[in-house]
Amino acid sequence: LQKAAEQLKPSIPIKFHISSRTDSGVHALANAAHLDIQRAPGKAPFTGPQLLQGLNHHLKPEPIRILRAQRVSSTFHARFCALSRTYIYRLLLGCAHRSQIPVFEQDLCWAPPGGPLDIPAMRAAAQLLLGTHDFSTFHSPHAEAAAQSPVRTLQLLQLQPGHGLLGHHHLHRGLEFWEVKVKSKSFLYRQVRRMVGALVAVGQGRLAPEQLQELLELRDPRALPPHATAPPQGLFLHSVEY
């Protein structure tokens, strides 16, 4: 996106800031960013529609599109002014083998192996994670020690029926989508994927809901088994609120 903005020939280097960074393989249905773009003397500032058209023209080869552009105050910051971020993790249940994943859903969901999941147990476990906690257990152990506090407030964590990109009627018999929807002002590195992985472990009977509470209280990233991190392809940044 920064390269596309530089193609618009600003008079000074672009300063580009995005609301949320995502791991490789993670998707965004809608992200937000801000940039400072100054044109050469004598040239009028870009309007929102002009910026939208110009950026999308230079983004053609990339799997990204600008949906809306508007002028904001100089005090606005896409990352620090965000009130909340909402993520959705898409699960496909009922797959005995990867070959059963619909072709249009490849790399857009996670099909956990091992049969159906205990949805009520997963919902009970999700309730234990709601609210304000030290989420150190759900911080990636491989990340460098971050300066920010591990305390986060989950405003929403729910498990709900989902749908395929082409609708339910295109799924094979026995396959169904579920979505984990989670909302907070901010998240720790890989927190959402690690929480989803732990919830799936509960759904598979490998963890009891109360064990999730115990893991949370340990406040230790090494307490969560390495295999408990959900893969990136099922995760979508859904929206950012200001």
UniProtKB/TrEMBL annotation:
Q: Does the keyword tRNA processing apply?
A: yes
Which ranges does the record mark as transmembrane? none
Positions annotated as active site in the UniProt record: 23
**Sequence ranges assigned to domain Pseudouridine synthase I TruA alpha/beta in this UniProt record:** 125-242
Q: Which Pfam families match?
A: PseudoU_synth_1
Q: Which GO terms describe its biological process?
A: tRNA pseudouridine synthesis
Q: Which reaction does it catalyse?
A: uridine(38/39/40) in tRNA = pseudouridine(38/39/40) in tRNA
Residues engaged in binding substrate: 87
This enzyme's EC code(s):
5.4.99.12
Q: Does Cytoplasm count among this protein's keywords?
A: no
Cross-referenced CDD domains: PseudoU_synth_EcTruA
Arranged from A to Z, the UniProt key words for this protein are: Isomerase, tRNA processing
Q: Give an example GO molecular function.
A: tRNA pseudouridine(38-40) synthase activity
Question: Per the similarity annotation, which family is this?
Answer: Belongs to the tRNA pseudouridine synthase TruA family.
Query: This protein is called what?
Result: tRNA pseudouridine synthase
Q: Which organism is it from?
A: Pheucticus melanocephalus
Tell me what gene encodes this. Answer: Pusl1
